[in-house]
Amino acid sequence: MNKATYDNYIKILNAELKPAMGCTEPIALAYIGALARHHLGAVPDKMILGASGSIIKNVKSVYVPHTDHLRGIKTALALGALLGDADKELEVISDVSKADQEKLGSYLKECEIAISALSSDHVFDLELKAYKKDESVFVKIVDEHTNVVLIKKNDEVIFEKTSFEQNIDRSIYKGLNMRDIYDFAEELKLEDVRDVLKRQLDYNVAIAKEGLKNNYGANIGKTILSDEPKSFITLVKAYAASASDARMNGCEMPVVINSGSGNQGLTVSLPLYAFYEYYNADEEKLYRALALANLVAIYEKVGIGTLSAFCGATTAACATGAGIAYLCDLGYDGVIHVVSNALGILSGMVCDGAKASCAAKIAIAIDSMHMALRMYMHHFEFKAGDGIIEKNVDLTIDNIGKLSSLGMAKTNEVIIEMMTKSI
Fold first, then answer.
1. Cα(318)–Cα(399) distance, rounded to whole angstroms?
2. Above 60 in pLDDT, residue 112?
3. What was the pLDDT predicted at 316?
4. How many Å apart are CA 335 and CA 394, to the nearest integer?
5. Mind giving me the DSSP string for 299-348?
6. Rounded to 5, what percent of the chain is helix, strand, coil?
7. β-bridge mates for residue 130, sequence order
8. Which of 38, 90, 91, 139 is deepest in the core (most CB within 10 A)?
9. All residues at 6 or more sequence positions from 148 whose CB lies less than 8 Å from its CB, including other chains
10. Residue 88 phi/psi, 5° resolution?
11. Residue 380: what are its φ and ψ, rounded to 5°?
């Protein structure tokens, strides 16, 4: 394949497959709080936070690690401002000790925290003004969880990007397409991505096993293993759901994300590991399937955007279906038809924020992906004109982007209105 395209795909994988502890939207709040404290030179005694509605939606109901099972916007922000290490970005709270976290309850009572919903052109938009006596710091983050665009201290600009450019040149994402992604997986030099993909497996498998071992949230993964016949698809669903059980409910273990989301990183990677384990598959082929599935998930999200009313676990499940098709030696035709079939089935699940039920949504999405895979194996497929299905997979993915970013914009507004009444 074209060397420039190959190099861009390596850059994308390295930029997107990052470790994060906790749900990424609460962690973004902890990060901005830690940045404010760093530049203020002291722990704030007052903070005023503005956040776009989709961020509020994804923070409101999820538990924050290292808080003794607390959740919500003020908890995440205060934890970062009090104890976070901004240099660690999405692992900003990873070094919080048990002794230190005991200080959080008192700080939440003492620090004045005000929260408001921002009306913004950016789906992901955070603004924080933090005070310590007569000193103040303002920090703004847009579009990505750690994409800082402005820092001011006492109204003096100390950091500013000339425009709202992101941490990686997003123009290279426009080159993503299914043919090149498949060819990339085939031609991939494993040494170029082995470390980042191995980290994804190591982290995500570890939290899946933790979710199956202990009690988290609604225990969807354990329920699946207890109630369903033992099979490959049972193992796939249980691994992915149990990891989400743990992550959404305060587990203090990191995951490797995809497209800014831990649940999407789990859903893309864990079914492929389950296939590898269940069928004793080839390790090299596993890494190629992981590269393919991760890139398909990222490609699907280009049109959807970072946050929307469309459940990201569904597109991640479609992408892992592509990886399983690859592991099953179904070739390019099998990969694209499984993705198209899965998108045709999974085009309607909404995102109503990060919380315990995400694990169940992941399990449902994987069930639908499995149906899409079986359809292809039995020589069945959805045809162009069946709903949003187009004559080729890239056009179908483009339709999903339009459905999510344009068609479901009002849906997102209604969901956010429901969820922000008590803010």
1. 15
2. yes
3. 93
4. 12
5. HHHHHH-SS-SB-HHHHHHHHHHHHHHHHTT-HHHHHHHHHHHHHHHSS-
6. 60, 15, 30
7. 47, 137
8. 139
9. 35, 139, 140, 141, 159, 161
10. -90, 0
11. -115, 150
Q: Which is nearest to 293 in space by CA: 276, 317, 262, 257? A: 317
Q: d(Cα 62, Cα 409) in Å, to the nearest integer?
A: 23
User: What proportion of the chain, given as a percentage, has pLDDT over 70?
Assistant: 97
Residue 295, pLDDT score? 98
Element (H, E) at 50: strand 46-52
Residue 394 pLDDT: 93
Rounded Cα distance between 369 and 346, Å, is: 8
Residue 320 banded pLDDT, cuts 50, 70, 90 = very high
pLDDT of residue 120: 79
Confidence of residue 349 (pLDDT cuts 50, 70, 90): confident
Q: Are 144 and 165 in contact (CB under 8 A)?
A: no
Domains of the chain: 21-160 (3.30.1330), 176-419 (no CATH)
Query: If we measure between CA atoms, which residue out of 289, 357, 375 comes closest to residue 324?
Result: 289
Cα 320 to Cα 107: distance, rounded to the nearest angstrom: 42
**pLDDT tens digit string along 256-278?**
999 989 999 999 999 999 999 99
